Amino acid sequence: MGGALVKPIILLVAVYLVLKFIVPNIPGSAPLPASLIFLYLMLVSSGIVIFATLSGESKDAFWGPIQRFMTGENIGGLQALRYGVLILFPLLVGWQTYGSTAQSDQPPAENRTIHPAPPGEYTGLSNPVAKTPENIMQGKGFYAAFCSPCHGGQFDGKGPAARGFNPPPANFSDPTTIAMLQESYLFWRIKKGGVGLPIEGMPWKSAMPRWEVELPDEWIWKIIMGEYDGAHQSPRTWE
């Protein structure tokens, strides 16, 4: 199809391999969400198209082989390849769509628990911070600064960065989330983040950072109070 197309294809493949396999292996990095990889590939593709259409000569060299392949003009012995691509492409899209939506009867690759339990030292902890209007308001301020980009300003899990993560950030206003949990559990999850979950907690693994690196315990307890108050929920108690 010409050298004008081979180089962009090689570049796209190289970018995908770097984002998919190299970046996650960098110390301190995490696997990139598929949506973010797709976004980077679209940006690279846009840059390739812009660069290839800077002049009339480069535009013809870039689009010419594509147009001739799609219309069947002057492709000689490549006619069978053309029909193969036009038939296989929709089949591959259909197969990918089916594979991503169909339920599987195969057992999970890892053992899973109904819900990951916190380590013993976090079980039954009570919030040592006084539940005063001032502390709740300060907790909401900390939440707005550190948590709302993902969990949303309305505590509904729809922050501006929420679309980039799978599983999505928790919706605190849903009565089946933090209302079913004790404050000690939230303290453990916020403090240790997604990397602090055991392997068997795979369904609930997330990209939430280990906030103990940046936030003191007192701030975390205040954030928890702010989350419950803002979501109009109450923590579960032993009683």
UniProtKB/TrEMBL annotation:
Protein name in the entry: Cytochrome c domain-containing protein
Sequence intervals crossing the membrane: 9-26, 32-54, 75-95
Keyword Secreted: no
InterPro entries in alphabetical order: Cyt_c-like_dom, Cyt_c-like_dom_sf
GO MF terms, alphabetically ordered: electron transfer activity; heme binding; metal ion binding
Gene3D superfamilies assigned to the protein according to its UniProt record, in alphabetical order: Cytochrome c-like domain
Pfam families, per the entry: Cytochrome_CBB3
Domain Cytochrome c: 134-231
Protein keywords: Heme, Iron, Membrane, Metal-binding, Transmembrane, Transmembrane helix
SUPFAM superfamilies in the cross-refs: Cytochrome c (SSF46626)
